[in-house]
Amino acid sequence: MSKILKIESTDPRNPVPTLITLKFNQPKEDEGNYGTQYMYGVIVNGEEKTIYATPGMHRRIQELGAKQGDTLSVIRTGQGKETRWDIIIDGRNGNKQIGRDGDPFVEGPYASQQMKSPTFVPEVEFQRRIAQYGVAWEMAREFIDMHGGEADLNAVAFTFYKMAQDCGHDLTAAQEDDQPPFE
Questions:
Q1: What is the pLDDT of residue 40?
Q2: Across all residues in the chain, what is the average pLDDT?
Q3: What is this structure's pTM?
Q4: Are 144 and 154 in contact, with CB atoms under 8 Å apart?
Q5: How confident is the model at residue 109 (pLDDT cuts 50, 70, 90)?
Q6: Which of 148, 142, 128, 154 is nearest to 179 (CA)?
Q7: How big is the CA angle at 123 (ends 14 and 159), to the nearest 5 degrees?
């Protein structure tokens, strides 16, 4: 029997992905004490493991259309009802990602040219996105302070990050301009 892998929550300001490779096309489903359980066989660092996916994580994997042999980058943030799963299929599969609302998207101008490029390096792209999310985090903090300080910082930061990605705006370049984003 394989070991059970529990993906721990990570700091949204410095997310740490877990890379998993699916062993099967579909999970085993079983009724547990808290509803349906989704048991995925995966390979992590060359070791076979089992993940009991939450309904949210399972939904994200299914929306991606992930299949046996696909490697997924999984980032978990938050706890309990605030848990959020960001899952991306490895670059060789087109880096299809599912957003918070469940709508598929391919991010900005990078998706059409850079992700198909033979020089695309997933680790470099991941670091670039982390830097951009850090800028979005600071922008969100400033925005919330300007508007009375009552909002979910992570939700606002993610919204700013996605808005920039969707229109192809590089937040780190905006930071270098040294102009305040809100006035």
A1: 96
A2: 76
A3: 0.52
A4: no
A5: very low
A6: 142
A7: 45
What distance in Å separates the CA atoms of residue 100 and residue 35, rounded to the nearest whole number?
22
Q: Name the phi and psi angles at 117, rounded to 5.
A: -75, 140
pLDDT 10s digits, 143-169: 888 888 778 888 888 888 888 877 777
Q: How far apart are CA 161 and CA 79, in angstroms?
A: 21
Q: Which run of H or of E encompasses 73?
A: strand 71-77
* DSSP per residue, 3-51: EEP-PPP--TTS---EEEEESSSS-EEEEETTEEEEEEEEEETTEEEEE
CA distance 168 to 170: 6
- Polymer length in residues for the chain: 183
- 155: amino acid identity, one letter: A
In the structure encoding, which two tokens stand for residue 112, read together?
Answer: 């059409």
Integer CA distances (angstroms), 102 to 62, 69, 163, 177, in order: 10, 23, 16, 33
Question: d(Cα 57, Cα 173) in Å, to the nearest integer?
Answer: 33
How far is the first Cα of the chain from the last one, in angstroms, to the nearest whole number? 59
Strand partners, 44: 47
Amino acid at 80: G
